[in-house]
Write a structure and sequence with these properties.
The complex is a heterodimer of chains A (238) and B (967).
Chain A lengths: L1 H16 L13 E2 L7 E9 L13 E5 L4 E4 L5 E8 L1 E8 L8 E5 L4 E6 L10 E2 L3 E4 L7 E2 L6 H6 L1 H19 L5 H14 L8 H31 L1
Parallel strand pairs in A: 2-10
Antiparallel strand pairs in A: 1-8, 2-5, 3-4, 3-6, 6-7, 7-8, 8-9
Chain B lengths: L1 H16 L3 E2 L8 E4 L4 E6 L8 E6 L3 E6 L5 E6 L8 E7 L2 E6 L4 E6 L5 E6 L5 E9 L2 E9 L2 E6 L5 E6 L7 E6 L5 E8 L3 E8 L5 E8 L10 E4 L3 E6 L4 E6 L9 E4 L14 E4 L11 E7 L2 E7 L4 E7 L4 E7 L2 E9 L4 E8 L11 E4 L7 E10 L5 E9 L3 E6 L3 E7 L5 E8 L4 H9 L2 H6 L2 H31 L23 E7 L3 E6 L5 E6 L8 E8 L9 E7 L6 E6 L18 E10 L5 E7 L4 E4 L3 H10 L4 E6 L4 E7 L5 E8 L5 E7 L11 E3 L5 E4 L5 E8 L8 E8 L5 E8 L1 E10 L2 E8 L4 E12 L18 E9 L5 E4 L10 E5 L5 E5 L13 H5 L28 E6 L6 E6 L2 E7 L14 H31 L1
Antiparallel strand pairs in B: 2-63, 3-4, 4-5, 5-6, 7-8, 8-9, 9-10, 11-12, 12-13, 13-14, 15-16, 16-17, 17-18, 19-20, 20-21, 21-22, 23-24, 24-25, 25-26, 27-28, 28-29, 29-30, 31-32, 32-33, 33-34, 35-36, 36-37, 37-38, 39-40, 40-41, 42-43, 43-44, 45-46, 46-47, 48-51, 49-50, 50-56, 51-52, 52-53, 54-55, ...
Classes of the chains: A alpha+beta (238), B mainly beta (967).
Amino acid sequence: MLPRSTTSLFCVLFQALSAVSQGLGEFETVSVGAPVNGDRFRIEGRAVVTDIKPHDWVCTARVLVEGEEDHVGFLKTDGSFAVNDVPSGSYVVEIVSPAYKFEPVRVDITSKGKMRARMVNFIKTSEVVRLPYPLQMRSSGPPNYFIKRETWGWTDFLMNPMVMMMVLPLLIIVLLPKVVNTSDPEMRREMEQSMNMLNPNPELPDVSEFMTKLFSTKGSGKSGSSIKAGKSGQLKRR
Amino acid sequence: MAAMVNWLVFLFGLVCLSAAVFEDQAGKFDWRQQYVGKVQFAYFDSQTQASKKLLVATEQNVIASLNSRNGDIIWRQVDKTGPEGHIDTFLVHGQDAITVSGNGRLLRSWETTIGGLNWETVLDTGSFQSAGFVGVQDSVKYVAILKKTAISLHYLSNGHQKWVESLLDSETVQYEVVYSGGSGLVSVLGVVPHSHLTITTYNLEDGKIMKQVSVEALWLESLKPGCAVVRDGVLVCADPASRSLYTLKLEEEHEQEMRQVLLQSLDVELSDGFQPHVLATQPSPAQHPNAEFFLQLGPDHHILLQLGDDAIAPLRDFQQALLVSFATTGEKTVAVVMSPKNETAYSINLFSADSGRRLLETTTTFNHDPSGGKPERLCVHAFLKKDDSVGYRVLVQTEDHALIFVQQPGRVLWIREEALAEVVTMEMVDLPLTGTQAELEGEFGKKAAIQDGLLGMVLKRLSSQLIVLQSWMAHLWKMFCDARQPRSLVKNEVTIETLARDEFNLQKMMVMVTASGKLFGIESSFGTILWKHFLQKVQPGSSFKLVVQRTTAHFPHPPQCTLIIKDKDTGLITLHVFNPIFGKRSHITPPSLGRPILQSLLLPLMDQDYAKVLLLIDNEYKVTAFPSTKRVLQQLQEMASSVFFYLVDSDQGKLSGFRLCRDLTTELIWEVVIPTEVQRIVAVKGKRANEHVHSQGRVMGDRSVLYKYLNPNLLAVVTESSDLHPERSFVGMYLIDGVTGRIIHEAVQRKARGPVYFVHSENWVVYQYWNTKSRRNEFSVLELYEGTEQYNSTAFSSLDRPLTPQVLQQSYIFPSTISQLEATITEKGITSRHLLVGLPSGAILSLPKMFLDPRRPEVPSEQSREENLIPYAPEIPIRSEWFINYNQTVSRAKGIYTAPSGLESTCLVVAYGLDIYQTRVYPSKQFDVLNDDYDYMLISSVLFGLVFATMISKRLAQVKLLNRAWR
C-alpha cells in the first residue's frame, strides 16, 4: 500500500518540479478537421482497451471535451469516436468510463481548423509533446479504486524487528549448548569458571530461583489452606 | 536521504488521512439509484415476442433502455444538459434508435442492444420541425428530417445524406409534417395560418419536386395536433370553430378543395371546450397508415372514427376515456383505452381497431394512488398469444413523472420514480426513538421527577431497566434466528413501522424535494422510499427551500419540516408544513402571505412546542414570523435588536443589511454596492448553522498558537466580471461581515472566469475557477486568522472587532473541471475536514483539506515539518483511491449534501443529480469505533493461547517442584 502511493505521488511531484521543456513547436498541420459549417470542427479518434471488445464497455463510456465550452461525444460500437460541433480553441479530450482509465489529451484547433494533439501539462501549458491525431487513446487498465486491507500473516509477524530481536537470542540459548559439548568435564569446569567470573556477587540470589520459591510457597500455602478448610469442614461435621 | 525520510513521513500521513474504500466495503453501507428523468418518448422493443426491452428518451437529455421485467436500466447515455443536448425526436426501427438533438443539430443512430453509437451526422442549421422514417417496398431505408427551411433524406445504415432540398417560401409557410406512405414519394405539409395549406411532394430518389399544391384553408392555424394523415394519404383535420372535420387527398393530381364533414352529422355530442386532437397510427413506415383514428372531443371524451371511401363512420364513442392509444402486432391493430374505474383504480381495455368491438378478456385494472396525479402518457406493447388472442403490457406515465409498468391482469410489475432525477434540495432528519427508548427518555423528564417521590422513581427505574433487558433479549433472539437462516434469506427490510434510530445515529431519513413538486422520504441505509407526497399545485420552475423547524429530539412533539415554495413569476410563496418521518401534512396552518417574499431565515429561537421560528421578509421589508404565537412574538421583541439579515439584489449589484425592529418592521443599516458595469454578484454564502469548530487555533511549530478568525456572521460573496474577454475577465471574492457590512477582505483573481464553486466554512473559503490564460482549473484557498492573540476569547461580536484578521491565500492547479464542491461535516468538528469534489466523470473525490492549506511552505523547514505541513506543489493530485463512490458514478451531480452522524469520525454524504448516491466517509479514519476488519480471531486466539500457556507452565512448575522435593 505504502510504496504504491509513494511512487504515484512522486511522479506528480516530478512533473511539478522538473517540467522538462521540449521547446515550443510551431503549429504545423497534421490534418484538417472537416469544417462542418462556419467554424465548427470535429475531433476524431479511437479508444482501445487491450483484450476487451468495444462492445463490452462503450455503453458506459463517454468522451468529454473540456475547454472554453464543454462538449460531449459518444463512442461507436467499434471504439472510435467523433465529437462534432466544436469551435476553434484548446480543449482537453478525456474518455470517462468507470471501468477503464484513459489519459487525457489536449487538442488545439486553430480558427482554420488545423488540429494537433499533445500531452496535457497543466503546469507548463505551452509545452508541446506531440501525440498522434486522430487521437489514439489507449487504456492503462482498470483504475484502482480500493486500498488493500492490511492482512495479518505469519511472515509479517516473523519479519517484525522486535520479534527478530527476541527470536535470535532464544535460538542462541537453545542451540549453543548443543554445539558445545557439555559432557566434557574440562569444558564444564571452564564454563563454570567463566560463569563465576560473570556473576560478580555470588551472594545475590538468583532471580529465577527467587521466583520459583515465591510461587512454590504460594502454591503450598494454598494447598495447605485447602487442607485446613477440609479439616475444619470435617470438624464442623462432627 | 533525510529529505527522503521526511517525504515518507508526509506521505505516510497522507495515506493515513485519505478516505479510501476497502474492496469488501463496497455496497455495504453505500447505495446508488439511477434514474433517467421525465420520459418524453417511449417505445417497446418489439422485434421478438420475448423481448424485454423498453427504449426511452427523456427531458433530461437521456436515452436509455429499461428492462421491462424489473425496471432496471440496461444501458443509459447521458447527453449535454440544456437545449444543446435536448432530444427533439426519437424514433425506433428494429435494432436502431434514431435521435435528433440540439434543435436539429445532430442526427444519431444508436445500437439498441448494447447502447453504443452506430453513427452520428451533423445537420445543417435551422430549427427542427419533424422527422420520420421513409420506406420503399416494405423496407425502411431512409430517415427524413424536416426543418424550417429544408428537408433532407439520410440513409439509415450510415447516416449519409441522400439529398437535401430547400423549401419554397419558408418565410411565410410553416412546414410541419413530413409524410411518406411507402410509394416512393415524400410529402411535406406546410401551412400559412388562416390562409392556405401547401403540399409539396418530392421524389424519393433524387429529391425532385414532383408536384406542389396549395389548398385554401382559412380556418387552419396549425397542423399539430389537430391534423393527421390516415388511410392512403388522406389528411384529416379537425376545426374547433366550425365543429367539423376536413379531409383532403394528398396524392390527387389536380387542384381540389377540402371536404367538410360536420361532426353533428356523425351523432357526436360536443362539449364547449373542444380542443381537437387527432391520433392516427401507421404501423409500418413503408405502408399506408390505418383508416381508423381517434378524435378527442373533451378532456375525457374520445371517439374512434373510420375513414371510408367517401364518408367518415363513427366506430365507438368513449365517454370516460382518459388516455387512448393504438398498438399493432402482426396484422392486428388494436385501440387501447384507459378509463378511471374509481378513485384509486384505472382500467384498460382493448378494442379491435377495424370494428370498434371490445376484445374479450383484455381488461386490466390497476391501482394507483390518486395523490400521484393523473396518468399522462400511455405506451402499449401488444403481442399475439398462442391462441391468437392479443395480450399486452402497458407503460403508464403519471403527472408526478412516475413510470408504472402494468401487465395483464392488472399486476403492477414495477414503478420508477423518475421525479428523483431532479432533486432540488434535501435534508437529513434523525429517526425517532423506539418505544422503549422513548420510555427511558420520558422517565427522566422534568415533570416526572416532581410528581413522583423517591420510591416512585426507584420503581420506575427498575421497570424501565426491565424493559431494556427485555428488548435486549428480543434482539439477541432475533440475531440468533437470523444467524440460523442462510444469508440470502435474511432481508434487511425497512418499513415505516420498524423505523428507529440506531446506536450511532447513522441511519437517517432523507427528505428529498424534486423539481416536479414531489417530496420523498428515503431511509438512508438501504435507500427504500418510505413515503412520497405530490404537491399538485406547484408551478414548474418554482424554487424550493427546505427548513427543519423541529428535530426528532423533542419527544412527544413530532418533527416538523417546512418547505418554502416560491413561484418563479410572481415571487409569491406557499408553505408546506409536514412531518419528515411520515410525510404527512401537519395540522398547523401556515400564515397566509400576500406579498412576494425576499428572504427567509430560521432563528435559533423556539416556541413552547420547540419549533424554531421562521422569519419571512416580504418586498416591503415587513417580517412575518411562523409560528407566531404570543410567546414567540414577545421573545422576538426582546431579541429584535440582535436579529440581522441581508438581502442580495444581483440585478443592481446591491447587498444590503437590515436589522429587525421591535414592531416587526426592519431598518436598513448598511449597503454595499458592487457596480454591475464592472462585475456582477454570482453567489453569496454564509456558514452552515450546524457547524462546530473544535479547536480555536492552530499550534505552530514554535509552540505558539495561531488563532482562527471565527466570525459566524461572515458572508462570502463571489463576483464575476461583466467583461468576458479572456484578458480582462476576473473573479472576485469578497468577505463581508453580515452584521456591520464591513468588507473584511477582498481577493481578485485576474484572467479568471466562472463558474465558481466555493465552500465557506470555519475560518476558510475554498473556491474554484477557470484560468483563462493557462486554460486550466484552479483552486484557491483563503484562511483568516486573528493572530497569535485572541481579542476576546469568550464571545464573538461583529460590533467589537477592532483588528482586521490576517488573511493567507494560496492557489493550486486542479487537473479537471468540477461539477460540485462541498465539505464534510462532523458532530463536534474534531475530525479533520475533507472537500468532496464532484468531477464531470461522475466520481466524487474526497480531497483532504490539508492539501488546500495556505501555510504549505515552498521550502520545508523543521517547524513546518513538525506542523505536518505538506510542501507546496502546484498541482493537486487526483487519485482514484480517493473516489468515495469507486465505480458507482453519479451523473450530473447537482448537489452534495453532508450531514454529521452520531459518531464523530463519520460523515454522511448524499450526492444527487441524475443519480442518487449515499455513503459514509471517515476523513480521519474510524478512530472511535473498531474497524470492521478488526481481527477478533487473532486477539481471542492470542488471549486463549496465553491463558493455556500459563496453565500449562503452572502445572509444569508444580511437577518440577514435586520432583525436587522428592530428590
